[in-house]
Amino acid sequence: MSKSEQRPNHPEAASPWVISTRELGRRPGGMRDYRRTVPAPAGFFLEVIGIPEGEPIELEVKLESASEGVFVSGTAHAVLVGECARCLEPIADEVTARLGELFAYPDSATEATTETDEVGHVVDDMIDTEQMVRDAVLLGLPLAPLCRPDCRGLCPECGERWADLEPNHSHETIDSRWASLQGMRGRLASAVADADPAENAERR
Q1: End-to-end C-alpha distance for the chain, whole angstroms
Q2: Which H or E element spans position 107?
Q3: Which end of the chain has fewer beta carbons closer than 10 Å to its terminal beta carbon, N or C?
Q4: CA–CA separation, 156 and 112 (whole Å)
Q5: pLDDT tens digits for 109-134?
Q6: How far is the C-alpha of 185 from the C-alpha of 194, rounded, in Å?
Q7: 106: helix, coil or strand?
Q8: Where are the domains of the chain?
Q9: Rounded distance, CA 13 to CA 196, Å?
């Protein structure tokens, strides 16, 4: 599809993510502030941590009119849930993602010289902030969240959390070079025990 054939998606006016720019106008320098609480859609989640679907995201944004479009800045704040990357214990945290993106006017140079998915767009005097917020939130999530900075994780032998084990917790380890000999010793002992009692008496 050529650049001229590409069209940005039309925003759903009823969506809480969509903000009208009509009151802002196109004169550079105009500003308006907005505060909204938006339920998180699916997908605001990395592998082990994120914002559960339906949980509130607090948006505080400022719209500024510029010659090329509308610049949106502000923050998105939400509570996170997940599990520790080391010990798998449930954890809770918060994220405050900083926002900053230009939404281009349909007749601007920015609109004409960029691909549809490279920049936000003003469509019928509306902007959809969901993708901008999603990108900022996901970039702000920790890749390996921890229940505490010094978490030691799980014991590799029994799988229990080190934090729940005694300080001297340990497991007997057998050198692999002797493991087969110990197995032979066990089988020999079992064979002797199962032998005929009379035969054992003669041997004594």
Answers
A1: 94
A2: none
A3: C
A4: 57
A5: 888 888 777 888 999 999 999 999 99
A6: 14
A7: coil
A8: 3-140, 162-203
A9: 90
